[in-house]
Every structure is written in structure tokens, then in C-alpha cells.
Amino acid sequence: MKPVLSNQQHQTASSLVGFSTFEISVPSLPPGIVINDPANVEHVLKNNDIFIKGEFFRIRSWDLFGNGIINADGDLWKIQRKAGLRFFSNANLRNFIDNVVPPILLDTEEFLDSAVRKGRVIDLQIVLLDLTTRLMGNMAYDMDMPASLPFSKSFDFASGATGERFQNPFWKLKEFILGAPLRRAVFDIKKFGNSIVSAAIQKRKSDHGSSKTDIQRNSDPLQNNLINSLLDHINDHQVVADAAMNYLSAGTDTTAQSLTWTFYLLMRHPDAREKVLSELRSTFTEANHVLPLSFDTVQPSHLPYIAAVFNESLRFYPPVPVELKESTAETTFPDGTWLPKGSVVMWATWAMGRSKNTWGDDADKFRPERWLIAGDEGEPLVLKTMSAFAFPVFNGGPRACLGKRMAELLAVHVIASLIWKYDFAEVFDKEAILGETPKERRSQNSLTLPMEGGLPCYVRRKDSGAGESS
């Protein structure tokens, strides 16, 4: 049974204009609709019992995500979210920014310094992925996980292959014939997830005979990591392994990709880059050439322009460009659209971020200032809060992203640190070298939004003159 669309033209899912609702007419998808109106998105995100991941999504993503939180519904989702809530506590976030980030970020800077000395081109996307993977590994699993691990390549490959399943109605036939590389990648991913759980269980056993009590462990941010929280809440170790890999993907790939697009936009908009430096100079007037970055000083409210740059980058390049849900009951949307049980509903965060209805006539322009409100005379700028349903980058409602605050704090920290110390310049293609306008970089096929071909660039170390170029 097809959805009945009130006062709407029946168009294909590719016709994303304004706040209209469209019937899906795509061979690989079941009957459903594409929504663009924030009010309709709010209806979906607030009704977690009506709109679930569903079998259409779960069947295609099962190999990669298993019973992890990305795939889960109902009680299985609730218990994993409860474990995540404990991990993303304020105490853990403070420990993350003040103790975990600085030494690993220093390793990143040493790598960049080496590239400067040798005059090497770097792939900034790989550099940032290595940074976020090591950070999440240390904080969540008490393990050092460089992105060079075979697991990372396997996950990247499997994510792309899984994304293709949503586009190809004959994916099962294709993988029956050509699916060996994907099966090997999934095997590597599962093996790595199980190794995380095994290592954590072994450590818990060794700690059991020590003087640490459960109360002491729960009050210690270094011990109250994600894997311990998952093991405390979930008895099935395979589910724990699936959940661990889901959280690892959400905490590394999406953050690294978002930072990659942010630095790309700053390279393409030197005026915004100069405003970042200006904010740092005016905020840290006593810095003595070293920024005193900490949990307190990287709050978005403390460095609002840098936070606005990150938000504007997310508006253009959301890490999850398309979302899909399945209805468990018939429902009527705020615009009058009726949807029967078992249908799917999609919204493109990527398209919503470019909607002139929401963002104005300059929606196609990179303008961080749209996120800022001028204070009274002499007062600092204030970061504007946007509805999670008009700007659903971090989802909203009951399934709002648990790692939102961690991602924002880390982004401000990394942007401030690297822009203060380094100049980055893109390695352009032949057209740009010949004087033509450089092509806009594209994303590769994936469930998330990695930059196709990475972000090759030149890097130069600034002198110690408070962010001034040498």
C-alpha cells in the first residue's frame, strides 16, 4: 500500500526542494516518503516507538553493526544507551580533554613537524582519523589504536560496501559472486571487536584481586571507560563486542571526517581562518605563544567563533548524510501526510543543511557568522542554538547522539591547536594549477561522509609569534 500524500505532488526522492514531502519511487526501497520539513523530522525523532531502525536497515547493515546500538531497537537499544550515558559523563569528558587529548595530540603535531622538515605532502584526513581513533581507543577501551591497524581499513571497506547495499536491489546476488573481500573485512572487524572485549575481561579479572572496589572503580574516570560500562550492563559478550565496534565507529570515523571537511573549508576560506586566529589572540592574551587549552577553555561558549566554524562545516557536510527509519504503526505527519505501517521514511541531512527555507538565501555560502549572536556593546559573541530538528546532524529526541558534547569539545580543541601552530594548503589538481577554479571535493560512497581521495595538503609550521605565519 502506497502512502497517501495530502496536498503534495508525487515526485521522486531526488527532488529535494523546500519543505515538501515526496513519495519514494526507488526500485531498491520499499514504499515510503522523503521528508524535509523540520516539523516532520521532529515527529519522527520524538516518536521512537513508532519509528525504528527496522528490518530493511538491519538486514543490510547486520554484517557490519550486528546487535550494536546503531542497529538496535527496544530494550537492546535502551541498555546500550544507558551504558553510553555513564561513559559520557561530565567527569569523563573533563578527563578526556585535560588528560587524554594533550599527549596524543602532541604525537600528531610531531608527525606534522616531521612532514614540515621533510617537505612531504600529508593526507590530513588520515592524520585526523589516526588522532580520533587513538583518542577513542585510549578513552573508551584503554587501548592504543592507531588508524594504521588492519581493522581500520577493513571497516572503511565494509562501510562502503554496506552503503552500496542500499543502492543496489541485487546486492545479495552481487555479493554471492564477488563478496569475498567484504566477508574477509567483516571477519577482521568481528575479530577485533572480540579482542577488545577479551582484553577488558582479562583486565577486570586481574583487578578483581586488587584493592580496588567497585565504588572506587566507578569514581575513577580511567576505570569507568566505555568497555567497562558495557560489560556492567550487558551479559552477552558478543553484543558487547558489537556495541564496542558501533561506538568506536561513531566516535572515530564521523569525528575525523567532520574535522577533515572543516579544515578543507578553512583552507578554501582564508578570511574565516584569520577570524579563528583573531579569536584565539583576543581570548588568550596572556598565552605567551602557547594556548592554555583545557576542558574549561574549549567550551563552545568560550570560543564561539571556532564552534560556529565547526557547526557551519557540519551544516555543509554532515557525517551521516541520509537517515532512514521504518514505521511500526500508521501515523499522520504535521503536514497531513499519512504513512501506513511498515513504510520507510527518509530525510537527507545533507540537503536540509542547504535549504534556503531554513538558512536563508545565502544557504549555499560558508558563513560561520550565521551561528553567532552579537552581545550588548562590549559583550562577547554568543553561539546560537539551532533546533535539532532543523539541524539534525546529531539526531534528536530519545536517540540524540550521546557523543555530541565530546565531538564539539574535541573539535574546538583540535581546530584551535592546529590552526594556531600550522598553515595548511591544498594540493590542487591540474585544473587549479592551470588557473581554473579548483573543483569542489566530493565524498566517497559510504554510510558516512569520508572525503574521496583524502585531503592531500602541504603543511608549514608557524613561528612562535602567536599564530602569525613565518
Write the CATH homologous superfamily: Cytochrome P450
CATH class: Mainly Alpha
Largest sheet: 5 strands, mixed
Poorly predicted parts = 1-16, 215-219
Strand sequence of the main sheet, in spatial order? 1-2-8-5-3
What is CATH's topology name? Cytochrome p450
Distance between the termini: 66 Å
Family: Belongs to the cytochrome P450 family.
InterPro entries: Cyt_P450, Cyt_P450_CS, Cyt_P450_E_grp-I, Cyt_P450_sf
Protein name: Cytochrome P450
Organism: Alectoria fallacina
Describe this structure in words.
This protein is α+β, with helices and mostly antiparallel strands. It has a single domain (66-318, 353-461), classed as Cytochrome P450 (Cytochrome p450, Orthogonal Bundle), CATH 1.10.630.10. The chain has helices at 38-46, 54-65, 74-87, 90-118, 124-141, 150-165, 171-178, 180-208, 214-218, 226-233, 237-268, 270-283, 304-316, 349-352, 356-359, 404-421, 430-433, and strands at 22-23, 32-34, 51-52, 122-123, 322-327, 331-332, 338-339, 344-348, 372-373, 382-383, 422-426, 456-461.
Explain briefly what this protein structure is.
The protein is an alpha+beta fold and 470 residues long.
